[in-house]
């Protein structure tokens, strides 16, 4: 798929090799999008409910924007990231919630279904799915258990639900199995965290590392003064250097 290969060619980070480190998958694709010229940002954790918004995108010719919900689970954010990129490829904007695409009953839902399909194809290439040992040895027609789905989804950095939906698209699982899976889950899985975490890493994530690098780079080259840079970054002047450091690839 050309969109997938284009992004992979932009990434400065090595492709993730860890099946269990979901953050490496998210960081890899975020970096690829930033290097492709997309500004990726996140809401503060707990600021917006996942049921209200998982992500949105704004299409601009120069610097398109993707905003992720920082409350969402890491694997959910990854799929939303590529879903919103699909919107940008189609020169559309999106505000995406938790509604599924099993019934595209309107033009808007049909667009969401198309973006889901594009995101799934970029994250889970058909050949990689079909040659996966877990997929190859799974009995045809037998429903997948949640532990099986989690294990099979890990190498792709996606959620169990996204992996199951991809299996439906590829004709490996009946649609009714996916619908039953969805009906058995009352709400999205959101990983809770205690504490506020590291200030600089959280700030860089929310603003977007690409944005921080651009502002701090302009400050370093004396294109903007310290007070202006601090205002753009929403930090104190003395915090600019540290924030710039954690935003490097």
From TrEMBL:
Pfam families (UniProt xref): Peptidase_M78
Chain ranges of the IrrE N-terminal-like domain: 34-167
What is the top-level taxon of the source organism? Bacteria
Under which name does UniProt file this protein? ImmA/IrrE family metallo-endopeptidase
């Amino acid at each position: 798929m050309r969109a997938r290969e284009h992004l992979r060619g932009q990434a400065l980070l090595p492709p993730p090799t860890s099946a269990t480190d979901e953050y490496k998958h998210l960081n890899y694709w975020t970096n690829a999008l930033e290097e492709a010229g997309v500004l990726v940002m996140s809401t503060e954790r707990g600021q917006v409910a996942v049921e209200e918004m998982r992500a949105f995108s704004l299409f601009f010719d120069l610097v398109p924007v993707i905003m992720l919900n920082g409350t969402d689970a890491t694997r959910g954010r990854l799929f939303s990231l590529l879903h919103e990129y699909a919107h940008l490829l189609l020169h559309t904007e999106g505000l995406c919630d938790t509604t599924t695409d099993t019934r595209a009953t309107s033009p808007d839902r049909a667009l969401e279904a198309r973006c889901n399909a594009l995101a799934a194809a970029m994250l889970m290439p058909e050949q990689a799915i079909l040659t996966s040992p877990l997929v190859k040895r799974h009995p045809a027609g037998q429903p997948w258990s949640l532990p099986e789905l989690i294990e099979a989804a890990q190498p792709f950095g996606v959620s169990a639900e996204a992996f199951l939906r991809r299996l439906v698209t590829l004709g490996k699982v009946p649609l009714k199995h996916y619908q039953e899976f969805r009906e058995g889950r009352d709400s999205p899985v959101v990983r809770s965290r205690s504490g506020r975490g590291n200030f600089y890493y959280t700030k860089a994530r929310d603003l977007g590392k690409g944005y921080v690098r651009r502002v701090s780079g302009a400050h370093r080259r004396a294109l903007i003064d310290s007070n202006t840079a601090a205002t753009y970054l929403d930090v104190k002047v003395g915090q600019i250097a540290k924030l710039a450091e954690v935003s490097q690839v």
